[in-house]
């Protein structure tokens, strides 16, 4: 699975003018399933995201996780993370899982995160979403779990 994490002061997702998810301080997680991914990769990804120490402690050192700060987690599906731009000028998205597998693993990620963290919000799989955020730092971390 591929993910991009952004440490945010706030973030929200809109679909057709309605807010489907919004958080204050925390993490915006853009996530993409790849062919061959399973619940095992999703579990590893969620565990890593929840424990990743990218928030500042009292000394200003990145030493706290989103769980440590009781921050929000906004999870948004984004198949374009699997873009292959190596040939030509139009990206190929064949590296992304198909819609059925992608939705299943996205829903699984949401459920796993909600079991382990108190504040989890979401986008809407397959929708045309408008994501707004205020990146904090900026801190942006790419992750790939095999």
Question: What layout of secondary structure does this protein have?
Answer:
Elements: E1 2-15, E2 18-23, E3 26-32, H1 39-51, E4 55-56, E5 62-64, E6 72-77, H2 99-116, E7 120-122, E8 129-144
Parallel strand pairs: 3-6, 6-7
Antiparallel strand pairs: 1-2, 1-3, 1-8, 4-5
Helix pairs in contact: 1-2
Q: Count structural domains.
A: 1
Distance between the termini: 7 Å
How many β strands by DSSP?
A: 8
CATH third-level topology: D-tyrosyl-trna(Tyr) Deacylase, Chain: A
Largest sheet: 6 strands, mixed
- What portion of residues belong to β-strands? 35-45%
CATH superfamily label: D-tyrosyl-tRNA(Tyr) deacylase
Total helical elements? 2
Q: What is the CATH architecture annotation?
A: 3-Layer(bba) Sandwich
Describe the structure.
By secondary structure, the chain is of the alpha/beta class. It has a single domain, classed as D-tyrosyl-trna(Tyr) Deacylase, Chain: A, CATH 3.50.80.10. The chain has 2 helices and 8 strands. Strands 1, 2, 3, 6, 7 and 8 form a 6-stranded mixed β-sheet that branches. Strands 4-5 form a two-stranded antiparallel sheet. The longest helix is centred in the C-terminal third of the chain and has 18 residues, at 99-116. It is globular and about 45 Å long. It starts with a strand and ends with a strand. The mean pLDDT is 97.
Question: How would you concisely characterize the structure shown here?
Answer:
By secondary structure, this protein is an alpha/beta fold. The protein has two helices and eight strands.
